[in-house]
Amino acid sequence: MARRVFISGGTGYLGRALVQRLVAAGHDVRVLARGGSEGKVAPGAELIRGNALHAATFGQHVAACDTYVHLTGVSHPAPWKGRAFRSIDFASLRASATAAKKGGIAHFIYVSVAQPAPVMKSYIRVRQECEKILAEEGLVSTILRPWYILGPGHWWPAALIPVYKAFGSIGPTREAAERLGLVKLDQMTGAMRWAVENPPTETRVLDVPLIRDLAIF
Fold it and tell me: Which residue positions in the chain have pLDDT lower than 70?
């Protein structure tokens, strides 16, 4: 069944790959893009001009959709970007939640982050607050919690794969190694396509092992 999908953050690293996959699968996709980013919208998707931080600039285009995907956030997250996480990641999620609630969206998809973790505390804190907003708004959601997504321009953590395997083979560290594991870009978009095509009746969380498993569909 084709879905009508609105995507905030559809011109970025993960977003563009997801849009291409959804369009190829026959879904009707609308991509929110700010001025200057229009050319980054993947072919086959409908361009919606607006500011992801302000629901009033795009909210009128949401009601025609049944699924909302929120991907807007700071690129290349780092511990020193705490203020940006709050001014961009948090503010854009609040705007998306407002638009989705008002537009009667049946299914909200949010890419959060694996947790708990010993690093990136400010990033995790903001993502936790964003998850809380979705719950408070009563939005039925699929929350994906990857740690790092390997792909073009994002391959450097692949050097850590032997370390992950070592920790994954030891009882006390196995759970953390799995929860904070690496996923590939095609695995992430595969799991997200599955989420779009299989909306839940109540909020669910997809962690790294589930993202990998669902990527095969």
Answer: 217
Determine the Cα–Cα distance for residues 181 and 143; give it in Å rounded to an integer: 17
Give the integer Cα–Cα distance in Å for 58 and 47. Answer: 11
Instruction: Tell whether 154 is covered by a domain.
Output: no
Residue among 72, 23, 19, 82 at smallest CA distance from 50: 72
Q: How far apart are CA 74 and CA 97, in angstroms?
A: 18
Domain count of the fold of the chain: 1
pTM passes above 0.85: yes
Helix (H) or strand (E) holding 175: helix 171-179
Supply the range of the domain harboring residue 18: 4-149+183-214
Is 168 contained in some domain? no
Residue 157 lies in a domain: no
